[in-house]
Amino acid sequence: MSLILQSIQVSILSMLVIFLVLGILIGVIKVLVHFLPYMAPPPPPPRAQAPVANASGSSQDDDHIAAIHAVLAHHLGKAPHEIQISNIQTL
């Protein structure tokens, strides 16, 4: 019978230690929140509109569209000439 009582005592002691540590953590977090409150970061500045391709057709935008076209064709498992991108919007 003493083994059962010892096992119960160890279980109760371990649960007390766990809840004591959790209580201490809650207290430490509350103290930290009181002294170091959370401040939301400032909102990002608004993004500028995408540049329009110039008359010669060479622009960084063209490179981005080509990359998007190639990735989309690969993802769909089709050849690049089989798909047509009609509209790209920035998010």
Protein described:
The chain is mostly helical and 91 residues long. The protein contains two helices and no strands. The protein has helices at residues 2-35, 60-76. The radius of gyration is 31 Å and the shape is elongated. The protein starts with a helix and ends in a 15-residue tail after the last helix. The relative contact order is 0.06. The mean pLDDT is 84.
Taking pLDDT < 50 over at least 5 consecutive residues as the criterion, the unreliable ranges are: none
Question: Percent helix among the residues?
Answer: 55-70%
Q: In percent, how much strand structure appears in the residues?
A: under 5%
Task: Give the overall shape.
Answer: elongated
> Would you report the number of β strands?
0
Give the averaged pLDDT, no decimals: 84
Helix-strand category: mainly alpha
Annotation keywords:
91 residues, elongated, mainly alpha, single chain, 56% helix
Could you outline the blueprint of secondary structure elements for this entry?
Layout: H1 2-35, H2 60-76
Short characterization:
The chain is mainly alpha-helical and 91 residues long. Helices cover 56% and strands 0% of the residues.
